[in-house]
Specification:
2 copies of one chain form a homodimer. In chain A, the strands form 4 sheets. In chain A, strands 1, 2, 3, 4, 5, 6 and 17 form a 7-stranded mixed β-sheet that branches. The model of chain A has no long low-confidence stretch (mean pLDDT 94). In chain A, helix 5 packs parallel to helix 6. The first copy, chain A, is built from 7 helices and 17 strands. In chain A, a hairpin with a 6-residue loop joins strand 12 and strand 13. With 307 residues, chain A is of the alpha/beta class. In chain A, 50% of the residues are buried. Chain A folds into 2 domains: 179 residues, FAD/NAD(P)-binding domain (3-Layer(bba) Sandwich), CATH 3.50.50.60; 119 residues, FAD/NAD(P)-binding domain (3-Layer(bba) Sandwich). The longest helix of chain A has 22 residues. The two termini of chain A are 24 Å apart. Chains A and B meet through helix 1, helix 2, helix 5 and helix 7 of A and helix 1, helix 2, helix 5 and helix 7 of B.
């Protein structure tokens, strides 16, 4: 395996693969490192309807496979490996992986974010089969259905209000007896006749065979449990950006997201960012792809000056 | 024709159509106004290889047709009409078109930019047939060919250097006797053995039947003309953003581009921007699409607060 690269891209989701296509086309020796499966979180979804360019719904795993092949067409190497450490030394980046050490003139960091999950029974099995982490993406699948939203913050309430335009009934399930969200969102939720709230409750398990059928809930005050039928359940308890490796190099906000401008550059020389590690990104494939392209072109501008 | 809309999108290129898909899916009554042909400038190109999601080259006109149909699938109306004037009145936008007046609660402004062209004989006929406005897009088509780059600024020199990685010979044609570009780019151009410069010269015409074969050049000092064979000619004499209508509402930089942050909002209430009107955008379909999605989601956040 080659040790020295022009560009190493950390993360093989939509942002990383889009960046890879452009770095490859700029004839840069480019390696993409992905610790899980190439394609990113979106490949867990059954279909995607909102990636611009496809009038009919498509299969996310196929879309992302095309993106990977498109990068390889331009000579990019895709490698499954987890980055353990990053170091900046003499105008070059040292990238430590499991059993190897690479160098790169520039880095595009697109390691994404992870949803907070409850980690209870049925959750991973039913993800994409009634259990969703994105109302913007999946609301149109729940026309005249009954859905739950888990959470009590701005995202949870925004998703509940969005879902109420499609679903017949939306139940917000919150583990406390008051909401954390903006007051204006709270008012709108309280006024919306389609939205009900179950207070002081947590989800003990997701029930259903091939798709979600019900949630097992427990009231934390009374201790009573019950099984309640639902067609959909939207997790909105937050996300965590994969930015631990960047701490020493760039400004992170209080939640760990990278603060940057439209160039997608950072204060660290030769370090560019894209996708869901960025503050203000709204977790859509098209946004991450666009940012991947923008980061790759900023990266190319940087490399061209070193040539 | 309906007069009152939730969202009016100005511009039916990649940014506008991507925004339309998301506004439609948020169940907003959405109208897209395009003064020329839906799909934007990219439909002038024969193929596109760098829109992520397609391992094989595709036809841009077909990609953009899919994007238009995808927006219509969610109830968006696409209308050919030119915006003559914008006014902000009582929390609403008034959009004056040729023979009509619309209102909208929010605007997504994605009217794009236009390349400066020379306006000489053969230029429009051979555009996409050897005449190009984008080296990033088209350089790989000119492996071992002889190409011209017209211009003397940063873009022209960057494109010349990029093209030199593919072409056998790159000739920079500049109408002055010195370059305007950054010194580091000039040094690199002077050092590159593949790049030659023709000074003090302008292009009088593009020659060729079905594709570009030669340029007619005139030396402005001597007055002499000559015909020089080329396989490609890259125009790099600048772009002009279509932002005249925004002057009274947002901050524009000295070249007329909108200055904004990652949210793609503006100082004007309910006005969002996307695509090539934005300072720092690098004129790629994927970047404009990603920005269209981001602007639509910022717009939806704004509208949700008005509901």
């Amino acid at each position: 395996m080659e040790k020295n690269w022009d560009v190493i891209i950390v993360g093989g989701g939509p942002a990383g693969l889009a960046a890879a296509i452009y770095c490859g086309r700029a004839l840069r020796k480019t390696l993409v490192l992905e610790k899980k499966v190439f394609g990113g979180q979106i490949i867990n979804a059954d279909i995607i309807e909102n990636y611009p360019g496809f009038a009919e719904p498509i299969v996310p795993a196929e879309l992302m496979e095309q993106m990977g092949k498109q990068a390889e067409r331009y000579g990019v190497v895709l490698e499954n490996d987890e980055v353990a450490n990053l170091r900046r030394e003499q105008n070059s980046w040292q990238i430590e992986v499991y059993k190897n050490l690479y160098t790169a003139k520039a880095l595009v960091y697109a390691a994404g974010s992870v949803h907070r999950f409850l980690g209870v029974s049925g959750e991973s099995e039913l993800l994409g089969r009634g259990v969703s982490v994105c109302a913007t993406c999946d609301a149109p699948f729940f026309v005249e259905r009954k859905v739950a939203v888990l959470g009590g913050g701005d995202t949870a309430l925004s998703e509940a209000l969005h879902l109420a335009k499609f679903a017949s009934e939306v139940v917000l399930i919150h583990r406390r007896d008051q909401l954390r969200a903006e007051k204006i969102l709270q008012e709108r939720v309280f006024k919306n006749e389609k939205i009900k709230i179950i207070w002081d409750s947590e989800v003990l398990s997701y029930r259903g065979d091939k798709k979600l059928e019900a949630l097992e809930l427990r009231n934390k005050k009374s201790g009573n449990s019950e099984i309640v039928a639902f067609d959909g359940a939207f997790l909105a308890i937050g996300t965590i950006p994969n930015t631990g490796l960047l701490k020493n190099f760039v400004d992170l906000d209080e939640n760990g997201y990278v603060v940057t401008d439209i160039s997608l550059g950072t204060a660290a020389g030769g370090l560019f960012v894209a996708g869901e590690v960025i503050k203000g990104n709204r977790r859509q494939v098209a946004i991450s792809v666009g940012m991947g392209v923008q980061a790759a072109l900023s990266c190319e501008e940087y490399l061209a000056k070193l040539d």
